[in-house]
């Protein structure tokens, strides 16, 4: 969608959604049938309140990362149906009155308000991620787009956060999933929200351009196997990093270093003759990228060819002021090969007197996921960076988060959805949500109150009740109280609202929040559930009694 006047709140123009397919027609048909029925009944302007929330944390864990808010606000700010779209809606609703098309033509979100938890926050089931207020006719048309924009974003951000947790703070995490993602939008969204969830870079060039995410990548096995010999290298000249000297035959210089490695007392028994076509590929790539040389070393044999060939090229680059970055392993026993590679690098540093050579970066890929990284940690490894694709971007272990969008109030009257399945009972009333912190600085509980209830106070004892089990209750004395829902859209009102922070700030918020969680809530196996409770006077209990 093109930016509309509706998006010029406070004198600012808010761009449309990243994906141009996100328009008011990105909707389930029943949203339009309900909009027509509301209009036909004269109910379309009744003031409604909807909560967007989820019922269960994904991946068997006890936390979720909220993402997708920025795209929702971009959609909201530019919400407008074109004449062509209105004509299509008319065709989808046979027998609908022409006056309904006039209603759609004038529809925007100037009378809608959105309150949300800041994007990148750690969130929990039942607590509203977003509260959307406005005329029921238009708010109903926001349900499907909002759920579409939040569900996958939050799921993949949580998946990324879980991978970060198991990998540890010191490791680099690279998202390599574009080729395996569910279509172009799946790839772009995954790159964005994996970065938000704690990944350091992506291989996705389009995502790098759109969102400013750092890009990482080297070459594939195809590049290595495309070479037959060093005779194919036409331009053998390498200018030194400082520009003062020139090597006229870098290929010969690499060959000289390979012989030195072969005759080194500590390395001679590891390999004999390396694959010369692989050496040609590495040399050619280094000539193209002397400042960022990183080689994929498992096309033929890692220890008998790939590592020695890489070292020969890296040592040759070193003579002219360049420092090679390291290697990538994409197959085999990653724990064993990473340790052997590190030992080889350290031996080169020691034997050939090259300071810092033992600290070459070792990157591992090859269908990695939480479980394989955890297994590598238990085995012991020397991997510095993990390139993760399929299992990350497809959220292989869980297909969807399951967010819902439920009416909780209309015309100031609370509404509830009842069910024999207690997890599907909605929580009525317009609510406020708070996070209460203990003396150690960790969050203790999220509590929901009625809109007009007094907020919890620091140092005052507060009775909290379980949502569905009246016998479960506890007193909490918060040392800090944080109100969760903040206003991100006030329609045409002149009041200030929260600004949408850049992606990097959202990422920093996510990392900080995850670090501030109690460790037992975060662990992979048997995590402790985080408590989400109500104030004892919440109207919800009156509905269930």
Tags for this entry?
545 residues, alpha/beta, nicotinate phosphoribosyltransferase, TIM Barrel, six-stranded parallel β-sheet, 35% helix, 17% strand, elongated
Question: What would you say this structure looks like, in words?
Answer:
It is an enzyme of class 6 (ligase). This is Nicotinate phosphoribosyltransferase. Its cofactor is Mn(2+); Mg(2+). One of its GO terms (cellular component) is cytosol. InterPro entries: N/Namide_PRibTrfase, NAPRTase_C, NAPRTase_N, Nic_PRibTrfase-Fam, Nic_PRibTrfase_pncB. By secondary structure, this protein is of the alpha/beta class. It folds into two domains: 11-162 and 398-544, nicotinate phosphoribosyltransferase; 225-362, TIM Barrel, CATH 3.20.20. It is 35% helix and 17% strand. It is built from 18 helices and 22 strands. It has helices spanning 29-41, 69-77, 83-92, 98-105, 136-140, 143-167, 183-196, 205-211, 221-225, 250-262, 276-288, 302-318, 334-351, 370-379, 390-393, 503-515, 519-522, 540-544; strands at 47-53, 64-65, 113-116, 122-123, 130-135, 172-175, 201-202, 238-239, 246-247, 294-296, 326-329, 361-364, 385-388, 404-410, 413-414, 431-437, 443-450, 462-465, 473-476, 480-483, 486-489, 531-534. The strands form six sheets. Strands 15-14-1-5-3-21 form a six-stranded antiparallel sheet. A six-stranded parallel sheet has the order 7-6-13-12-11-10. Helix 14 (370-379) links the parallel strand 12 and strand 13. Helix 6 runs parallel beside helix 14 (370-379), helix 11 packs parallel to helix 12 and helix 12 (302-318) crosses helix 13.
């Amino acid at each position: 969608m093109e930016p509309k006047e509706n998006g010029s709140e406070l004198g600012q123009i808010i761009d449309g959604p990243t994906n141009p397919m996100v328009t008011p027609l990105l909707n389930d048909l029943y949203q339009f049938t309900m909009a027509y029925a509301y209009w036909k009944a004269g109910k379309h302007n009744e003031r409604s309140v909807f909560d967007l929330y989820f019922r269960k944390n994904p991946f068997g864990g006890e936390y979720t990362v909220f993402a997708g808010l920025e795209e929702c606000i971009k959609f909201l700010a530019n919400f407008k149906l074109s004449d062509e779209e209105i004509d299509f809606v008319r065709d989808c609703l046979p027998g609908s009155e022409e006056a309904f098309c006039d209603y759609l033509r004038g529809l925007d979100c100037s009378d809608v308000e959105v309150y949300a938890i800041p994007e990148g926050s750690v969130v929990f089931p039942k607590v509203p991620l977003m509260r959307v207020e406005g005329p029921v006719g238009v708010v109903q048309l926001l349900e499907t787009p909002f759920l579409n924009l939040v569900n996958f974003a939050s799921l993949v951000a949580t998946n990324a956060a879980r991978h970060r947790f198991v990998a540890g703070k010191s490791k680099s995490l690279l998202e390599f999933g574009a080729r395996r993602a569910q279509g172009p939008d799946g790839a772009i969204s995954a790159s964005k929200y994996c970065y938000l969830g704690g990944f350091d870079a992506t291989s996705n060039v389009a995502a790098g351009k759109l969102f400013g995410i750092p890009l990482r990548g080297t070459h594939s096995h195809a590049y290595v196997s495309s070479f037959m010999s060093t005779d194919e290298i036409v331009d053998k000249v390498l200018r030194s990093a400082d520009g003062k000297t020139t090597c006229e035959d870098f290929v010969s210089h690499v060959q000289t270093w390979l012989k030195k490695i072969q005759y080194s007392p500590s390395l001679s028994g590891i390999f004999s003759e390396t694959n010369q076509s692989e050496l040609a590929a590495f040399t050619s790539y280094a000539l193209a990228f002397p400042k960022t040389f990183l080689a994929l070393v498992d096309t033929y044999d890692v220890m008998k060819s790939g590592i020695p060939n890489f070292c020969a090229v890296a040592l040759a680059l070193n003579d002219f002021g360049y420092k090679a970055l390291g290697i990538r392993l994409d197959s085999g026993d990653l724990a064993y090969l990473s340790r052997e590679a590190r030992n080889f690098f350290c031996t080169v540093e020691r034997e050939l007197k090259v300071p810092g050579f033992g600290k070459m970066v070792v990157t591992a890929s090859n269908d990695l996921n939480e479980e394989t990284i955890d297994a590598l940690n238990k085995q012991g490894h020397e991997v510095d960076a993990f390139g993760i694709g399929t299992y990350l971007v497809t959220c292989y272990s869980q297909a969807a988060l399951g967010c819902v969008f439920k009416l909780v109030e209309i015309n100031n009257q609370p509404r509830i959805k009842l069910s024999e399945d207690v997890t599907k009972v909605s929580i009525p009333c317009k609510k406020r949500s708070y996070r209460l912190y203990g003396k150690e600085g960790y969050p203790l509980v999220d509590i929901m109150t009625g809109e007009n209830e007094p907020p919890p106070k620091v140092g005052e004892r507060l009775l909290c009740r379980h949502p569905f089990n009246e016998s479960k209750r506890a007193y909490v004395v918060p040392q800090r109280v944080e109100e969760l829902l903040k206003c991100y859209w006030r329609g045409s009102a002149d009041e200030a609202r929260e600004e949408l922070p850049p992606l990097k700030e959202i990422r920093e918020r996510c990392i900080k929040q995850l670090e501030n969680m109690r460790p037992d809530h975060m662990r992979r196996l048997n995590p402790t559930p985080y408590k989400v409770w109500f104030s004892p006077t919440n109207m919800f209990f009156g509905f269930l009694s």
